[in-house]
Description:
By secondary structure, the chain is mainly β. It is built from 1 helix and 24 strands. Strands 1-9-3-7-6 form a 5-stranded antiparallel sheet, with no helix packed on it.
Amino acid sequence: MFLMQKVAFNRNALFLALYFLAVAAFAIQTQAAVAVDNSTVNGAFSNTGLSTLSIPHDVGGGVNRALYVGVSTSTTVLPIGIPANRVTSVTFESQTAAGTQIPLERVGTQVSPDTRNAVEIFRLINPPTGAGNVIVNFSIGGTIPAPFVNYAVGGVVSFTGVNQLTPNRMFFSSGGTSAAPTVIVADSAAGDLVLDTLAVSPMAGFAVPGAGQTEQWTGRLAFGSVFDVGAGSTKAAVSSVTTMSWTLTNSDSWALGAAAIQPALAATAATVTIAGRVTTASGRGISRARVSMIDSNGATRTALTNLFGNYRFRDVPAGEIYTFQVSAKRYKFDARLFNVNEESGGLNFIAAP
Length: 353
């Protein structure tokens, strides 16, 4: 009798162990992995100062996309009144979306101690797929006229599997004068992919990424493989703190910025949040546009866009196909069908030109 009870206990324990392993495996599967889709780079130099930089880039067709742009700049002459933000705007001009220019959002800025070099990172949630150009525009002039930006390197990385509502965590940055730029990202988690961008002057020579980092771009090819000026890399986070570092050929004044990109989460509850933006063909947000969401039974929910064209629907039942319609004065939009299975922050609508 005792033997039978012992066998039954062991079977129950085995069943429970297998059950919890299955639950753990399911929990892991509900979190998608952030993956690099494509990375490109371009750089330029001008004695009289750069006004713009164009970077060709192809966005793949993966789900939960995000586009990040790291801009590294350096100046040879320090004009009075040089701004911390040397970049005035960044747009993605999609060749497959009728030449639509979509503005990117600033993630963060860091300037080197001598103010010669600067890092600026931007992002775009749910970019259109296919070929396009990232256009970076720079400040020009100063209180005493002089070029703000002589050297510029822009790195573009498109990702898949990115959280569409909160694509990245806090921006962290640092600046110093040495041959070992380092920044500690104190807001990361296992499953995140940390992206960094480095800015130095030509005197630094080349930059080599630290252990565990994957180089995504450097500026050396743009400058005849003589120096880098800018570089960027990614690193898989394994804990709440991730260190990003580089080794320079020569000691130099540097700026380094980074942020952890969060993975998309599959729907684990009965309801999700759907959000997006309504814009003109030129990318300007349309305020007070009415967005209607119609389910298969004809029930309709509406939301008005804010000043920047953003809208949001909360507590949307998952697992159903909805029809989305947008109405706004002086603009026309095509209705869209959208299969709601998970959180989405990139259901955008562009007015017909």
